[in-house]
Specification:
Length: 553
Amino acid sequence: MIARASKLFLPTLRDAPADAEAASHRLLVRGGFIRQVGAGLWTFLPLGWRVHQKVVQIIREEIDAIGGQEMLCPVLTPAELWEQTGRIAIPQLFKLSDGSGRPFVLALTHEETMTFHGRELQSYKELPQLWYHFSTKERDEPRPRGGLLRVREFIMKDSYSFDRDEAGLDASFERHRQAYERIFERCSLEVYYVDAESGIMGGKESKGFLAPTGSGENELMRCENGDYFADAEAARGVPRSPELPDPLDAPEEVETPGVTTIEGLAEFLGVDPAATSKAMPVVVGDRLVLALVRGDDRLSEEKLETFFESAFRPATEDEVRETFGAGGGSIGPVGAKVDVIADEALREGQFVAGSNQDGRHVRGVEAGRDYQATFADIRQAKAGDACPSCGGKLGVQPAIEVGHIFKLGTFHSVALGATFLDEDGQEKPIVMGSYGTGPARTIAAVVEQHHDEAGILWPDSVAPYDVHVVLLPELGERGEEVARELDAAGKDVLLDDRDLRAGEKFADADLIGCPWRVTVGKKTLEDAAVDVRRRATGEERRVSIADVGDSLT
RNA sequence: CGGGACGUAGCUCAGCGUGGACAGAGCACCGCGUUUGGGUCGCGGAGGUCGCCGGUUCGACUCCGGCCGUCCCGACCA
């Protein structure tokens, strides 16, 4: 097909809006692909929507290829479904009611609704099933940002697998992993399949697909030797070994007047900060527990949430004083009357800890001997940690999470009563998985990975048009001829027939970023030829008009 | 939700400190001419509730208060 720029709504901008920081944000706005309507709310203009549709089609083909059945669920959802799974409590969930006061939510994902339909599955003979849809998700994000990077409303492809058992789920999960790899490959995205945290999803295992970029919401942690990749929130970095002082036979109290920070404590006592511990009192449900990490580490809230399988909150100052008899900077595990969750890094060795008395700490505190704890990986990995598989150095870089896949298990099917009769006559809950990817984020990631100073460099597979024909003045007839040749060769053509100067057209062509540019100008027409240029490389060659249809390779 | 900043033409911004005249520039837009392979040049023109409400004042884009919106950092983030 041939689209004429003179007729298109294609508002390109010379300047980017002042508040645009991310490259994808700036270029998509400048190139006339998207426009902001409100915080985290974006319209896809005609060009942007073409790209979105290309990505959607790639996803559709790959999910169809693994047996997906496309359908469509509503966004507006009776709150009852979300009450049954307990996810009504998610703060990001938009809640509203209709005119007669019935409560609804705006779906932020569709586990509840899909499981609701899964209740119609009765027999193992009907399993497995794989259902998916492209639908609008609504999220009350406290802080949208970065153009398309984090928004409040967006289209997501989410699929849901229904299996008899864990083995079936594993197979469905693996098929999605492979489909996602193919999707991102086709979009020319560099992505890494990494451990992720499922957070409040209610699942037990989840994996993310992270595209490393200049700007992004997530952080990709990668080993310098290329053998370990993880979402920084879930990474299992190995912390450096601390310089431990000589061990003591028993804990020993020391006066530490006015010392409430790890830095202050380490300096005051002349010890390695890594030889101290810090205690974070948190409340899970109605239970106060003490999370303990090494002094130089940060607690990973995501990991702790996964450990508890529930959200938690920091204890208040009053709760801390009432339970421990000391202020937040002075509490510790020794003699505490609460459960202690300690990070693995504290399993071996003696550390300085709070004493539960203001102005004092204890040193020589040893897990197992001086306090009892449940050990878990609850520290936040950081750059400089050692790789868990080879010992190499880990580094971090910003990344966009373009896909996230979950083994949900039976969390939703149990809550909503989606069961089937198995071969053995037993009624069992369906074993589920869910698999999400956002075309808009994928587009943002593609732009982040494929652009230069002048504009976007679309991969062939998702470009808004295959070829951008720059028609220089007074050559209208010949331009039409070239466009028809290209159209006949099956190319989608953007014909820039606007009455503008060459420089402006070239600049717009660079900005919009179609993979090929064909210049129709007087210079070459006397030879019945045009100049064909590859956007990504800048290579240009002269081709006769008769051959132009086959020249884009 | 904490911290910071901003809100004046479609976009980028000046003006506001020290209140006072028709509220300005560049780009974009419309007309005419010029130019025509990398954002020409000239002339003319259109375009504004100065975010909203209230207060102070003879007089408010400017000062004060409240609200709304947007962005950045953090918290949060299926």
